[in-house]
Structure prediction request, 372 residues.
Amino acid sequence: TGTGTPSPWDELPVRDELRGKSPYGAPQLDVPVRLNTNENPYPLPEPLVARIAERVAEAARHLNRYPDRDAVELRTELAAYLTRTTGYEVTAARVWAANGSNEVLQQLLQTFGGPGRTAVGFEPSYSMHALISRGTGTGWISGPRHDDFTIDVEAAERVIAERRPDVVFVCSPNNPTGTAVEAETVLRLYEAAQAAKPSMVVVDEAYGEFSHRPSLLPLLEGRPHLVVSRTMSKAFGAAGLRLGYLAAHPAVVDAVQLVRLPYHLSAVTQATALAALEHTDTLLGYVEQLKTERDRIVTELRAMGCEVTDSDANFVQFGRFDDSHTAWQAILDHGVLVRDNGVPGWLRVTAGTPEENDAFLDAVRAIRKESN
Ligand code: PMP
Prediction:
């Protein structure tokens, strides 16, 4: 402040590693077209809304009681969903659910990371991997990628061998680049991680359903230190629900019980998620439409002369800009909110409805004309 008077914030005895840091914060701006947080643009269909009301009403009759602490019915249905859509059989004993996959990741770091331990991720990647590491007292190691945003496997193997992290994050498809990771890459990183420590390898498949490639879930076979994390926020169009889950060896599910809060998953959440799972086929139909729109965005941006990273997610990384923040603002001035993830030269747009995507493509066309 220049007055020499410490602010109340300076005086708060917060942990040293949190001082001077910023919280996660995608702008929530009121603009006509919001394509900045990788949400699904389609509201839940009315029959599902009615079913949620029904199941929540039933749950409400028992809200004087704590919910099922082990969420057995929900985990059974999630396991059935994974088995049906990936062809790899998982059971409830191999599935765990929490309030968004962010909480799943936090529970994993509380269990396998923590003070004196480290986690590695290959950046640019999902910023919360580093933030949740910090929040749980886990040291963060930033690993590299190639210029095309694929993981540099040799460099990754070296980082793992030298730094011996306790947790290795592999985000596939990767946020914010959209890059899918080859099964072969995961296997090599898993081998490196086992040789170094052994450590846990967490595959974050939040966008798995949007990929051109099959899920990495079958890699769980015979690999007790591998975890696949998923969410209902994207493919199920239920970001507001806050429901994430993992699949792993049953021992991993047992281990996270040590850190989960009792009754962490409310009865309302469990009832709503179960209703949504009854409508899986309809919701996966929207996913197909979004994949088509995602591919159209890639094609049209390239036709305009933009550089675009191949995408297996419900968003597209595009550029390049001399100054991505100026480009972000220019697109916003045309009424379209995209995301500046701090990757120099690049921005990210979420696939929306066809109309929203047209508005976005028109905005990019316009700013390219303005800057010529
Ligand atoms: N992983 C990745 C890669 C993400 O992009 C997100 C959401 N942006 C999450 C996890 C967390 O999602 P949620 O907590 O809504 O499941």
Notes: The chain has a mean pLDDT of 96. The pocket of 4'-deoxy-4'-aminopyridoxal-5'-phosphate is lined by residues 38, 100-102, 126, 171, 175, 204, 206, 231, 233, 239, 244 (CB under 6 Å). DSSP finds twelve helices and twelve strands in the chain.
